[in-house]
Amino acid sequence: MKTKQTVAVIGATGNMGSAIAKSLSKGNYRLLLKSNKQDELDALVKEIKSRNGNADIEAAVCPVEAGWEADIIILAIPYEAEKEAAERIREVANQKIVVSIANPLNGTFDGLLTTPDTSAAEELQKLLPNSKVIKAFNTTFAADFSTPVIDGKQVDAFIAGNDEDALQIVSELVATAGFRPIIAGDLHVSRTLENMQLLLIRLGMKYNYNWLAGWKILHN
Amino acid sequence: MYESFFRNFNSKVALTAEEEALIKNYLSPKKIRKKQYLLQDGDICKNIAFIEKGALKSYSVDDNGNEHIIQFALEGWIIADLYSFLTGEPATYNIDAIEDSELVLINKAAHEELLVKFPKYETFTRLNITNAYLAMQRRLTSIISSPIEERYSNFIAIYPDIVQRVPQHMIASYMGLTPETLSRIRRRILSK
Q1: Mean pLDDT computed over B1-13
Q2: Based on the domain organization, do B151 and B180 belong to the same domain?
Q3: Do both B107 and B192 map to the same domain?
Q4: Same domain, yes or no, for B132 and B180?
Q5: Strand runs (DSSP E) across chain A, as ranges?
Q6: Is A135:A159 a contact under the CB 8 Å cutoff?
Q7: Alpha-carbon distances, residue A84 vs A59, A79, A128, B91 (angstroms)
């Protein structure tokens, strides 16, 4: 797409939010970053601009303003914070793409807070019935964004959602971030994707992957 | 966020509060800053944009890089590359903002569903397209058959608000004139 899309990253100073913001700043996007930590946010915007003079990036005043201006809204916030954020952006997110990156992990990282018949993404879709919720960036660790090629292989990044156009647009985002996008299926596939990250986190803790690990589908 | 949209809608077809609430689900509020693109040629036009506040223009760019303005749109107007929107073919127009603006976007899927579910939306769309057709016919006739001075006089009579808000070089481009020619014509009209 030639027309520059505006992407709002809510929760931009978190591990994932800042990793996403940094990697997308290299693409043909206008980025609006929002965080409650204003000092960290200003520092992040400054850092991205100093690394890439062409980056079209700005700190946003509030999530509503950022969402209003955005074509795509990335909620880079924990699962527990999604409900409140969704209520704030509901009106401005109408008919827009909202990316759910959250994994609904419990406090001990050995299970999910969601029941098996749903997922964080599906719960978000219920909160934002007029938005196009897409699951993405949930099977990639923050460190993977600066190293999307691990052991010589480009990390796969799975995407799930119900709107064909929105899936394509988010695939472009994922590719810009350096990953190989794989559209996994409808939004309910998010249940599997969120469980995949639970497994990867468990394995990382057990075998000391040091948070640099990812999924790769091998096929002929 | 949708005030002007529904005022305009109600002036054409009256809606109940319930219908307004249902139609709102299909609309997307979008802010755009001055000079930002809503659409670039080559992309598919996926939205009809209603201008809630601000001003936009659509234009084509020729092989020499010159811009030819097709349409201006102020509050209460609609702008899109309708050909691309309706056929799904790549757009030949660019659309960008002349001022910081607030829009109400209606995407293709939402538009199709609204047409089926709300006969009043179909009426609203018919009136919009009729008006756009009339404006285009007037513009075409004026371009091919009216003397330049008359074209400009008509333009400022019909669209005084555009003349107030849009820079002269854009109006010149819209009229198919160089800025110098337009300023000569303006002087001539003023001295009359």
Answers
A1: 96
A2: yes
A3: no
A4: no
A5: 5-10, 29-34, 56-59, 72-75, 97-100, 132-135, 149-150, 153-154, 156-161, 180-185
A6: yes
A7: 21, 10, 11, 39
ipTM given for this complex = 0.92
- Chain B nearest-CA residue for A65: B31
Tell me: do B131 and B100 sit in the same domain: yes
Which domains are seen in chain A, by residue range? 5-206 (3.40.50.720)
3-state secondary structure of A132: strand
Cβ-Cβ contacts under 8 Å, B105 against chain A: 95
Q: Which residues of A touch B (CB under 8 A)?
A: 1-4, 30, 65, 68-69, 71, 91-92, 94-96, 129-130, 165
Count of domains observed in chain B: 2
User: Of A6, A72, A95, A97, which to mutate for an interface test with B (greatest number of B Cβ within 10 Å)?
Assistant: A95
Per-residue confidence (pLDDT) for residue B192, from 0 to 100 = 73
The pLDDT value given to residue B143: 87
List the one residue out of A162, A157, A158 whose CA is nearest residue A126: A162
Is residue B117 located within the same domain as residue B170?
no
Measured between CA atoms, the residue of chain A closest to residue B45 is A3
Q: Mean of the per-residue pLDDT values for chain B? A: 95
Asked if residue B189 has pLDDT above 90, the reply is no
| Band of pLDDT at residue B190, cut at 50, 70 and 90 | confident
B40-57 mean pLDDT: 97
Task: Point out the residues of chain A with pLDDT beneath 50.
Answer: none
Residue A31 and residue A9 in contact, taking contact as beta carbons nearer than 8 Å = yes
Of B29, B37, B110, the CB nearest to A3: B37
* Same domain, yes or no: B174 and B107: no
The CATH number covering residue B65 comes to 2.60.120.10
pLDDT in tens, B97-143: 999 999 999 999 999 999 999 999 999 999 999 999 999 999 999 88
Which residue do the tokens 């460190």 mark?
A143
B141 and B151 co-located in one domain: no
Angle at B62 between CA B57 and CA B68, to 5 degrees: 30
**B42 and A96: CB-CB below 8 Å?**
no
Q: Are B67 and B61 in contact (CB under 8 A)?
A: yes
Which residue type, as a one-letter code, is found at position A119?
S
